[in-house]
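Deliverable D4.2, example record:
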Amino acid sequence: MTEFVNWLYRVGVYGFALAGITGGLIWLSRPDADGRRWVTKARNNYFGYWLVAVAFIAQFISVGSQNYMIGSFTRPMTEELDWSRSEFVLARSIGQFIMAFTGFFIGGYVDRHGGARLMRVGAFVLAAATFMCGYVQELWQWWLLNGLAVTTGAAMIGNLVVNVTLSKWFVEKRGRVASFAAMGVSYAGVALTPLSATLVDAVGWRTAWHVLAVGVLAVIFPLSFAMRRAPEDYGLHPDGKSAAQVAAGGGRAAAADFARSFTRQQALRTRSFYLIVFGFGLGALSIGVMLVQTVPFMESNEGTEVSRIMPAPTFRLYPASSMN
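Output generated by the structure prediction step:
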């Protein structure tokens, strides 16, 4: 009972601090003239390309924090806390359900208001939840923190946010920039799998969660200030086209794309929508299992600490396929 009270106290303290800091930062980051000047100064280089870089890093952190890093914690956490592996990975199953529901709200919000504020809040939610994973004592705490809180924070900074944004800034080049941004998912496996394994071996799994949480906040929060809703809000045009190019017919692709666009309700009434969801769902299911289970599988077969680092070369094959 005492451990539960102490854990609840820590959650309350961090939650109160998080709410205060996040609220203050949201107020300070309200739209202003300086933000507009920052975007329009980048006319010659087109600000949308900066957003591609932000999307790459955001997906790197989002997917890495949900999936790639988990494998390095499986054995030390299950052994110390006396959990089965299925109980441990149930947190990720819970997370998949959470991700499915958050998409209905996040996509619409970003479409109307942009992803900047959402990403700032998500950075704090993800960092706080990751930090608190280092204090886990009971299974339900792990399910709550990793399954619910980590997933919610990751959804607020990841592909649900950045892909909606990129689709507004690019039309003709949309497929190419989306592929490049998605490479962040693959490179998360290359970098975060060995990093998390090295941290766990060096400082223990509890401290490793704390270090990773600080890294998440330090990377994502500053990047969130670069997020912008749409180029038209700043007098720009999709794909970096100038006003003269648009006047000469260079914006036909964007106009045609808008004319062919579906509302959410219209999309839900088409057969193609459900076929796409089914296909992507099957792919995501198989990939998710592999990302979480690869490290524990290799540990079970190799029986050495270094085997936790070995999956990284396997993931290096994915980024190249994204650019084809």
